[in-house]
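Page header: ASSEMBLY MODEL / two components / 602 residues total.
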Amino acid sequence: MGKTIAEKIFASHLVDEPFAGTKVVRLDVVMCHEITTPIAIDDLIARGKDRVFDTGKIKAVIDHVTPSKDSKTATQAKILRDWARRHGIKDFFDVGANGVCHALFPEKGFIRPGYTVIMGDSHTCTHGAFGAFAAGVGTTDLEVGILKGVCAFREPKTIRININGTLSKGVYAKDVILFVIGQLGVNGATDRVIEFRGPVVEAMSMESRMTLCNMAIEAGGTSGICMPDAVTVDYLWPFINSDYPTKEAALKAFKEWSSDPDAVYDRVVDIDVTKLTPVVTYGYKPDLVKPVTEMAGTPVDQVYLGSCTNGRLEDLRVAAAILKGRKIAPTVRAILSPATPQIYREAMHEGLIDIFMEAGFCVTNPTCGACLGMSNGVLADGEVCASTTNRNFMGRMGKGGMVHLMSPATSAATAIEGMIADPRKYL
Amino acid sequence: MKTFGGPALFLDRADINTDEIIPAKYLNEITKQDLQPYMLEDLKLAGFDPQGEKTREARVVVSRANFGCGSSREHAPWVFEVNDITAVIAESFARIFRQNMFNCGMAAIELPKEKIDLLFSYAGYPDTSIFVDIAAQKINVNGGGKGEVLPFELSPFDKALVLAGGWVDYADQKY
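Prediction written out in full:
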């Protein structure tokens, strides 16, 4: 009987099986940010165990509220910063070098096929795009990960989603994943890995695959996962070219981390996206999804382009192509948060930042920003935001605020019209 | 080991997310105790008052499917803990919230829908209390002059975490 990629990763990393159904696995990467890590650090200090299992396998960034906005967030940043310095964690990214964790860490080449990855952040599932098992955890799991380099899981079953057909103009990875979440429901993949397969995924860039995997958690999934292939090798090549003589050799090694043809799945879902149109969420759960045509004309107060879901260069290019030579509606305010400094600089060099600013966008530093209403871009009671982020929960972007999730293209069209708009007429 | 039981708070909706349990704007707090005033602040539910007497007196929460979905923030179990709520009983949980509860030595107990419905039939009595016996894997519900005993399933690992007082102590001894 064949194995899924998740089963292969679990088997190769197994440390202990304390009880039937519970697997303790060795961790390759433990990632930390300033919101969920400081309490773990303080608890380790209080226990007299202020140690880290491997300084090279721990990555840390200040990204949720940065630069700090008040004394409390400055204290959180300081606890993380002092800890990283104290332990000699070289992959620590502070103001000036920092960006959204799930965009920054892949960009630095930290994630490889076959890896196990945890972070005290639910969108850690993003990194499954590289053929890794990557799971969001709480602070206690993170604390044990920092101290011992292990984490316990109920070994997840896998839902395989075959994404067939071809994407129409104006339809992107974000539309696909919102549609998939709409099909599965917000708990359709609880205790499951979602394996994204099929020709549409194979044709996607790493950025698009990250957008897919990023929202696996919105269906309850433990990790999204894509099969490593030549696209994965090309993306990682600058970081691995001393490990493999050729790209072909790297590809051969990476392909070991693929599901076997006779692997057994919990469920297989076939989706044809040929007729899929741009979609938008309409309620307070990410599985409430409608075609943009049914939502067009809904007035918005703010447009937000950014986050670990859609703040990458590819997203900025798509939005800028629509905004070029156009202005945002006078009734709307639009905010762009490029996800990392590198994305910001490349967007500058390509002239994209000029396009956004000419159109009337405010461009912020790389940060999680408005997505979770913790720092900038917070909504007032009753306000509506068209957002490329991942959650539309009531109050998520500010008490009494409403969020409609959509692709970067749809958000750009919406910014121009000041109301939810179909991007296809601008393409 | 913690004790699990007392007055029950009934939250009659599926998919209650961790943003509703503790809004992101309070994630800048550095101690668990500082979260105490903000429990369930953004939850909009008919008849529910986050500052109400019933909420403040509760020691157990009963809810529906997919409780604790969304953000991984362990601040959600913590805000319950510092308000002396140590057990949540629901039809199902989101994975991260469920694990966070057990990792903190608290209990996230799943019951089938018909048993959850039975617990909700006690929601109208002012004196309803629920006690969770982890070792015996039984829930005692009493209210309105009647009572029931409901057995529940619990993974041996999660049971061991509760008995050990949480995952840090357990892992530190073992790995």
